[in-house]
Design goal:
The complex is a heterodimer of chains A (about 525) and B (about 150). Chain A is an alpha/beta fold and about 525 residues long. Helices cover about 40% and strands about 15% of the residues of chain A. Chain A has helices at about 15, 20-35, 75-80, 100, 120-125, 130-135, 140-150, 160-170, 190-200, 200-215, 230-245, 275-280, 310-325, 325-330, 360-370, 405, 425-440, 445-465, 470-485, 490-495, 495-505, 510; strands at about 5-10, 40, 55-60, 60-65, 90-95, 180-185, 220-225, 260-265, 305-310, 330-335, 335, 340-345, 350-355, 380-385, 390-395, 415-420. In chain A, α9 (about 190-200) crosses α11, α17 (about 425-440) runs antiparallel to α18 (about 445-465) and α17 runs antiparallel to α21. The chains are: A alpha/beta (about 525), B alpha+beta (about 150).
């Protein structure tokens, strides 16, 4: 056998959904039959989903990428000299020299697609656990201060300053405190949590450990949605490795500080992404929202002070510690500091993960990165921030993707997902769907959400049939949105009006053009 | 049931963990499971039933050999998942939440599988598939679909 060649074939769920396992199988078999010795590493995805499955061959000149590769391509690729990085129509060369990737500022996702997510050594070799070693050498309050100064805000959607939350938990006197990671990434159009957990799980584990050290917690939970079985496996493997190497457990890295993490699976309830209902679910109950106050930071999981942060937020903590608050907060605009992993999805030619400093406009994202719609038809709208996010028409695509600029347009950044729609979209149907989804996922605790959503679906239906009351019904729908917005206990009922009202405002014709069509 | 309670009973807030363990074993959380779990955790049957029925994931009857979960969320809709949905229902002859008469396939609606840059997506027994056009659905279903 010849010298062993290392080949990276992603095991990211998205890459698998496009046949990455079959590619890996074909590579192993093809190499064997050609007398070549190959070591396959199953990395995460770099987030260029239109090129997945994207494989990389390690050559003396560096990593050479090929994609998108199907299992059927593999024999011809091998014959063309894939294992030596030889030319081929699918050869992309050094993937990091592609503008799409080179123009990004990957801090949180710096290791995505690069490291072997099963190897803690690889994590450490790529800068992992530098942040924790710095945190362990500092008084806990100093760690909180660094996070506060970095300007990091919660990336789950609420954008609350992380340092202030940590400070509150730090300041509580309690025998038991918790770190609860919200990995219930339920927003359509978002997948950055999933990519991180699958492709760089140790960054989340390290971030949670730093949080625990900062606030004085010794127990952590990752509340993971059940729709993410691949992430569950990646996390289980990484947690075991971290424990084995003393990065979790009673005496972390010989510091005397103890902390451990368990994964708890959700059960298919979107509402459990709301932090108080997530806590209810973690305690084994129906995921109904809690009335705040008290804040979870004061009375959270099992009644104890709890840091609730999203995966991206916690996975960003290590780089903030490692490189410093000033380094991190120099990225971004206004009060949106640092970088945001945007997820470009839906009807778009080049979708995937784009991590940049805040401030990129929708136009830049959809056209420069995305290359327009996948279908080739004109882009008509984007929905930003998941099912509770507003729809923006093309005339507003110059809006920068940062918290305050979007809020000024009655829109929100949420968890950073941007879903592209071409001109075949029926916005009245999308408004109806938003209300239908709210009805389906409402926890039922408050009336505006539980009843309002169902009445809203009926209203949209009546508007579309138009039995003569359309003008009054449109007004009524707007009033209903007002009630839901002001009267709901949490964001599900309170924010469903964003997609509905933005659809009514920007795409009024879709509600009016279908007059006289019998149901 | 006893094993699940035994394994998770000592954890804090163990009910969801127990329900997951039962469903992993039996394919569902049958109505008969409610009373013994309630007894073991010192909860009322209403409390346990309330939790089981709250979560979409827990089902009262075991699914077919193939559980086909089709995403209905916005990103998939933007890539015309409604056409895939129609094709799936036509091909399988069942609506969401139902199992084919031969017991082979259960069709379920889900809301986001986190594969939104490769929409539309479906999951079959935990395996994720992307860019599932109606034609692609028919190709995939050739492996597990109803036998005519």
């Amino acid at each position: 056998m010849s010298a062993c060649v290392t080949v990276y074939v992603p095991a990211d769920a998205g890459a698998l959904s496009l046949g990455a396992d079959r590619v890996a199988g074909a590579l192993s078999a093809g190499a064997l039959s050609r007398g070549r010795n190959v070591e396959l590493i199953r990395n995460g995805s770099r987030g260029l989903y239109w090129l997945e499955p994207l494989i990389e061959v390690v050559t003396p000149a560096g990593r050479v990428a090929y994609g998108p590769v199907s299992a059927a391509d593999v024999p011809r690729l091998l014959d063309a000299g894939l294992l030596d990085g030889a030319p081929h129509a699918l050869r992309l060369g050094d993937i990091e020299s592609l503008d799409w990737l080179r123009s990004q500022q990957r801090l949180t996702g710096a290791r995505l697609g690069i490291v072997n997510p099963a190897s803690i050594d690889d994590y450490i070799a790529h800068g992992g656990y530098v942040g924790l070693s710095i945190a362990l050498a500092l008084p806990p309050l100093e760690v909180v201060k660094i996070i506060t100064e970095s300007g990091l805000r919660g990336r789950g959607g609420a954008a609350f300053p992380t340092g202030i939350k940590w400070q509150t938990v730090h300041d509580q006197r309690a025998a038991q405190k918790y770190i609860a990671c919200n990995a219930d990434e339920g927003d359509s159009g978002t997948f950055s949590d999933r990519m991180l957990m699958e492709g760089d799980p140790f960054s989340l584990i390290e971030g949670m450990t730093i949080a625990a050290r900062a606030v004085g917690a010794n127990r952590g939970y990752i509340y993971l949605r059940v729709e993410y079985p691949h992430a569950a496996r990646a996390l289980a493997r990484a947690l075991a490795a971290a424990r084995e190497r003393g990065y979790l457990g009673e005496n972390i890295a010989g510091s005397g500080f103890g902390f451990d993490i368990s994964v708890r699976l959700g059960a298919g309830a979107y509402i459990c992404g709301e932090e108080t209902s997530m806590l209810e679910s973690l305690e084994g109950r129906r995921g109904e929202v809690r009335v705040r106050p008290p804040l979870p930071a004061i009375k959270g999981l099992f009644g104890q002070p709890t840091v609730v942060n999203n995966v991206v937020t916690l996975a960003t903590v290590p780089v903030v510690l490692a490189k410093g608050a000033r380094f991190y907060q120099e990225f971004g605009v206004g009060r949106s500091r640092g970088t945001i992993p945007l997820q470009l999805a839906g009807n778009v030619k080049r979708g995937g993960l784009i991590e940049r400093a805040f401030g990129l406009t929708v136009n830049q994202l959809v056209y420069d990165y995305g290359g327009g719609s996948a279908t080739g038809r004109p882009v008509r709208a984007v929905q930003i921030g998941g099912p509770l996010g507003a729809y923006l028409p093309e005339s507003e695509f110059d809006t920068p993707l940062e918290y305050e600029a979007l809020a000024a347009k009655s829109a929100l950044l949420g968890h950073g997902g941007v879903v592209v729609f071409d001109d075949s979209v029926d916005m009245a149907q999308m408004a109806r769907y938003a209300l239908e989804f709210c009805a389906l996922e409402s926890c039922g605790k408050c009336t505006p959400c539980r009843i309002g959503s169902t009445r809203g679906v009926e209203l949209v239906d009546r508007i579309l049939v138009n039995n003569g009351s359309r003008a009054a019904d449109l007004e009524l729908l707007d009033e209903l949105c007002d009630t839901m917005f002001n009267g709901s206990l949490c964001g599900l009922g309170g924010m469903t009006p964003f997609p509905v009202r933005s659809a009514m405002k920007h795409f009024r014709n879709d509600f009016e053009r279908k007059g006289d069509i019998p149901s | 049931m006893d094993a699940a309670v035994h394994r998770h009973g000592a954890e804090s807030g163990p009910l969801l963990e127990i329900l997951h363990a039962v469903q992993n074993e039996l394919g569902c959380v049958p109505a008969e499971a409610v009373a013994p779990i309630a007894d073991a955790l010192n909860l009322s049957r209403a409390e346990v039933h309330g939790v089981v029925s709250f979560y979409h994931h827990f089902r009262a009857a075991a699914p077919g050999h193939y559980l086909v979960q089709l995403c209905r969320a916005e990103a998939c809709q933007s890539m015309n998942s409604r056409a895939t949905e129609a094709r799936a229902k036509e091909l399988l002859g069942v609506d969401f939440g139902a199992t084919t008469p031969d017991g082979r396939v259960t069709l379920e609606a889900v809301y986001c599988l986190g594969n939104c840059a490769c929409a539309p997506s479906i999951m079959v027994n935990g395996d994720l598939h992307g860019r599932v056009t109606p034609e692609r659905f028919a190709e995939l279903a050739a492996e597990w679909g109803p036998r005519s």
